[in-house]
Amino acid sequence: MASNPDPVHIVIGYRKHHLPDRVIFPFPFRLMSLEGDPLQPLLDGKVDALVIPAADLPDRLPASLDVAALITHTIIQDVDASHPLHDNSVIVVQNDRADLKVLFAPMDIRQTCGKVYLTGAGAGGREYLTLRADALLRNADVIFYDDLIDTDLLDFYTAEKIFVGKRKGRHHADQDTINQQLYLAALKKQVVVRLKGGDPLIFGRGGEEMAYLLDRQIDVEVVAGVSAVQSAAASAGIPLTLRAVSGGVTLLSAHNALAGAADRTLVYYMCASRLKELQSTLIAEGINSQMPVALVYKAGFVDETVTLTSIGSMHLQEHLSPLLAIIGQTASLYRRRPKILYTGTEPSRCLLPGKILPLISLKNQANSYNDIDLSLFSGIAFTTPEQVDSFLEIFAQISPRLVLYAYGKATVDKLRDHGYSATVLELNPQN
Questions:
Q1: Is the pLDDT confidence value at 59 over 70?
Q2: Who has the most CB within 10 Å: 292, 313, 324, 353?
């Protein structure tokens, strides 16, 4: 199938018993009835796009596929009515089809949504707040904050502040209510910061909030914080690991221990050259070979990659150092997020779905602009026409597989003047 077909040649696949009840696409197209696994014809290139119920969307799409749009049309009859998006459908395309992502973008109701940042405030005084968390708080529209943080730090920020703390016997809001509040705030196209004490994913119920929002196609980013275990150990001068004395750390909740045994998540550092030996050790300890494993390469860097596998297959993976293995049922919760290269000065205000990486900080990380690999990204965001000119002076050309997000008509026109048209998506200045 052609890489950039004229809209008249767009072939949209659907399962036979999911026949659309009316024409919903604002451009010429052809429908193709599909049997069996509807993803396979898309993977094989037999269709350009696929319409499926949002309730049927797999937890993890193949890496080569992406959701181009969440649409409100009820074109499916036999879906799970209990699913939060049972009245919606999704349009899935090949990940490198930037032209189709732009074509379907006007239908995507996610463009009217904001973004939620699950953010760690650190454990202790406000000096434990990271620079990343501070930047987000400065640009937030609303902050939902917990009980176990230094509330004086909130005085430095102008966002609306909503207390949702929970302490033993004193719950200002139950978890279901908090989840719904985050969701409703995101629907208002706001920058939402959920501020938690310590780190949001260590005994902070951040995983529950993340799952609730992702089920509703709300973009979520987790911002790590200094956890209580790090703060306590540092304050007491107690090394958590020490060569020939302690080779690892186990984090436990007394609540879980008293309630009975619970599965644990194992984390192994520096394992790139030891995956086979690690696999043998885990199986010898009686851990099921189907247990999920997430292999994280260069965590926190622009070229970070996450590979989801299992104990039984982990030895088949080849990775360079540094590599970290996360082993346990929680590893299966990994969801791939696109990376967007942002050329402006306020990345915290960018509401595009995905991980927003500012160009200036990447230049510092890579030593020079020429060291930045554009193939790591699914899109580039330009906020001014001048940024387009300066960017193309450095990189010369942009791959047609990248969506070019342009803020304002002048920026769109500048990209078109340089020969880019089919992959340009105009955003208003408030996005």
A1: yes
A2: 353
Q: How far apart, in whole angstroms, are the C-alpha atoms of residue 119 and residue 195?
A: 5
Q: Which of 189, 176, 178 is nearest to 219 (CA)?
A: 189
DSSP string, 24-42: --SS-EEEEEE-S-THHHH
Q: Give catalytic status of residue 115 as yes or no.
A: no
Q: Is 244 helix (H, G, I), strand (E, B) or coil?
A: coil
Q: 258: pLDDT confidence band, cut at 50, 70 and 90? A: low
Confidence band of 27 (pLDDT split at 50, 70, 90): confident
Written as one letter, the residue type at 94 is: Q
Average pLDDT over residues 263-277: 93
Whole-number pLDDT of residue 238: 95
DSSP 51-85: EEEGGG--SS--TTEEEEEEE-----SS--TTSTT
pLDDT digits (tens, 9 = 90+) for 370-428: 778 899 999 999 999 999 999 999 898 899 999 999 999 999 999 999 999 999 999 98
User: Tokens 């690892």 map to which residue?
Assistant: 248
- The Cα 193–Cα 137 span in angstroms is 7
**Homologous superfamily of the 7-111 domain (CATH):** Periplasmic binding protein-like II (3.40.190.10)
Identify the architecture of domain 339-427 in CATH: 3-Layer(aba) Sandwich (3.40)
Cα–Cα dist 65/368, whole Å: 31
Q: Which of 87, 134, 147, 166 is catalytic?
A: 166
CATH number for region 115-229 = 3.40.1010.10
Give the C-alpha separation, 378 to 404, whole Å: 9
Q: Give pLDDT, residue 1.
A: 43
What is the total residue count of the chain? 431
pTM: predicted TM-score of the whole model, two decimal places: 0.91
Task: Tell me which CATH code domain 242-333 carries.
Answer: 3.30.950.10
Kindly state the helix (H) or strand (E) to which residue 385 belongs, with its residue range: helix 385-395
Q: How confident is the model at residue 139 (pLDDT cuts 50, 70, 90)?
A: very high
**Contacts of the segment 129-135: beta carbons below 8 A, 24+ positions apart:** 129/153, 129/225, 130/223, 130/224, 130/225, 130/226, 132/223, 133/195, 133/223, 133/225, 135/348
- For residue 170, what are the contacts with CB-CB under 8 A and spacing of at least 6? none
**CA distance linking residue 20 with residue 324, whole number of Å:** 45
Residue 146 is a catalytic residue: yes
Q: Which helix (H) or strand (E) holds 407?
A: strand 403-407
Among candidate residues 99, 146, 199, 219, the one labeled active-site is 146
